Amino acid sequence: MLMRALAGTAFPELNAALAGRAGAIEITGISADSRKIKAGMLFVAIAGSKADGAAYIEDAAEKGAQIAVSAAAVDSAKIPVLQVDNPRLFLALAAARFFGSQPETMVAVTGTAGKTSVAAFTRQIWAQAGHSAAMIGTTGVMAPGRKDYGSLTTPDPAVLHALLAELAGDGVTHAAMEASSHGLDQYRLDGVKLAAAGFTNLGRDHMDYHPTVEHYFGAKMHLFDRVLPRGLPAVINADDEWSGRAAEAAKAAGHEVLTVGRKGDFLTLKRVEQKRDSQFAEVLHNGAIHEVRLPLAGEFQISNALVAAGLAIATGVEAKDALAALEKLEGAEGRLQLAGKAAHGALAYVDYAHKPDALEKVLAAVRPFTTGRVVVVFGCGGDRDKGKRPIMGEIATRLADIVIVTDDNPRSEEPEVIRSEIIAAAPGAVEIGDRREAIIHAASLLKTGDTLIVAGKGHEEGQTANGVTRPFSDLAEVKKALEGI
Ligand SMILES: CC(=O)N[C@H]1[C@@H](OP(=O)(O)OP(=O)(O)OC[C@H]2O[C@@H](n3ccc(=O)[nH]c3=O)[C@H](O)[C@@H]2O)O[C@H](CO)[C@@H](O)[C@@H]1O[C@H](C)C(=O)N[C@@H](C)C(=O)N[C@H](CCC(=O)O)C(=O)O
Ligand SMILES: Nc1ncnc2c1ncn2[C@@H]1O[C@H](COP(=O)(O)OP(=O)(O)OP(=O)(O)O)[C@@H](O)[C@H]1O
Ligand SMILES: N[C@H](CCC[C@H](N)C(=O)O)C(=O)O
Ligand SMILES: [Mg+2]
């Protein structure tokens, strides 16, 4: 592609340069990481939290970059360097234009918890309606005949648009993706053409990245005020503390607001009956009641399922078909996933709650069908928000009968220090650093009627400490531990 093809109204500051010699440069690819540059590519220099991409322009040139784009003026480089005000936005729009195609119908969902679940559910509803559908998120990419393990919740634009073009080339017509607050803040989604967008809820998360909760909420709202084209549907869970403000933000951005949930107008949850690991709900839509059997535990899953159904309906699935599809939903990997049942009947679940609200929701979700005790095993990640540690300790102590505090990716931190910060607010908790031992101990305590939740790692396949990631799966460990009792 010629650089000239990247000219457009979004970057008037580039137009003069692209009308000249720089516009005639043919590029073979785009990356913001000099380590990924190959001959003929365009390098976009981004000023990040650890490094300034502008310092890597020479490195990119040595690897074969033809041209670079940067916020800072760099005259000394061996390749032309064009200046733009917002290189991250440029990267997103340039990658979209370079790769050129995406599944026709795309939605994105934001919120503190439930994004992976909503994306997974939306994909399944579309698939049941006969569409070739994909999901992109924390657990990776899932598409017909394809399952890749995930890295980022919202991939970097160059990776994302290469993937979207591949999916479109494979015949995928519908895709649901997660919009993380980092992704929105860093303009990773700005080149994606969305047909609708969703919001689940807002709680404490990523306080190591966002200076305040307001800033965090503002980042999430960029899905509506920057990414979703004006006038398109915004599906909002109506039952969260932040729902009103999210709906206001979506309305102010000119969208059609569709609220779902107990307080929702578009899909109104009238009644829920909890079964042991499923639930029955009555949902009102357009004056008609639909009976829905959801084969998943946890009331929060109803909320996720309604956001997903709202997104599917907003993108053309008949309401009755979308709601009927909920009866066959499979939970996203590692989200309140039943890992096994002990011989005496106790249930053991693996869950991805690694933040306060999620832990609170998941522990509350299993209580109604637990006739014995709720046992929880969890830890907190190192090099992440330290403030959540005592909060999660307090929640576990309040909502579980037995609390076992263990390690969850200590990364570069001292695991004992992390554990002690949790236990400061969890008096009476049992401390077992080794996660495998903690799970074995928890399983050995189980009796008839008890429920075990191993929280924090969900689908993850490793435990990271001291810069080394060793294979580790909560699901496999729980299964093994149950066999041993
Ligand atoms: C904190 C964060 O979000 N970091 C992201 C951010 O990096 P940064 O701004 O810190 O970049 P940096 O390391 O300072 O480097 C600046 C630039 O120099 C470039 N560079 C650097 C070194 C070099 O040799 N050559 C070179 O070109 C880098 O590629 C980068 O473009 O921009 C990079 C490029 O877009 C991202 O890859 C990177 O994600 C890192 C890997 C990450 O771990 N992010 C996590 C925290 C994240 O994004 N998580 C969210 C949320 C998950 C959730 O919801 O729980 C997600 O969407 O996954
Ligand atoms: N609607 C919800 N409200 C509160 N908690 C939820 C909700 N949905 C899921 N959870 C909890 O949050 C955990 C993560 O769910 P999910 O992966 O769907 O969310 P996410 O927003 O993608 O999270 P992440 O940002 O960590 O990728 C679940 O394992 C469960 O404990
Ligand atoms: N996307 C999140 C996942 C956290 C998962 C938890 N297991 C941990 O390691 O803290 C993060 O990287 O902060
Ligand atoms: Mg996710």
Automatic annotation (TrEMBL):
Residues modified to N6-carboxylysine: 220
Domain of life: Bacteria
Cross-referenced PANTHER family: MUR LIGASE FAMILY MEMBER, UDP-N-ACETYLMURAMOYL-L-ALANYL-D-GLUTAMATE--2,6-DIAMINOPIMELATE LIGASE MURE HOMOLOG, CHLOROPLASTIC
SUPFAM superfamilies: MurD-like peptide ligases, catalytic domain, MurD-like peptide ligases, peptide-binding domain, MurE/MurF N-terminal domain
Motif Meso-diaminopimelate recognition motif boundaries: 408-411
InterPro entries recorded: Mur-like_cat_sf, Mur_ligase_C, Mur_ligase_C_dom_sf, Mur_ligase_cen, Mur_ligase_N, MurE/MurF_N, UDP-N-AcMur-Glu-dNH2Pim_ligase
Subcellular location: Cytoplasm
MF annotations from Gene Ontology: ATP binding; magnesium ion binding; UDP-N-acetylmuramoylalanyl-D-glutamate-2,6-diaminopimelate ligase activity
Binding-site list for meso-2,6-diaminopimelate: 384, 408-411, 456, 460
Annotated residues for binding of ATP: 111-117
GO biological process: cell division; cell wall organization; peptidoglycan biosynthetic process; regulation of cell shape
Gene Ontology CC annotation, any one: cytoplasm
Name of the protein described by the UniProt record: UDP-N-acetylmuramoyl-L-alanyl-D-glutamate--2,6-diaminopimelate ligase
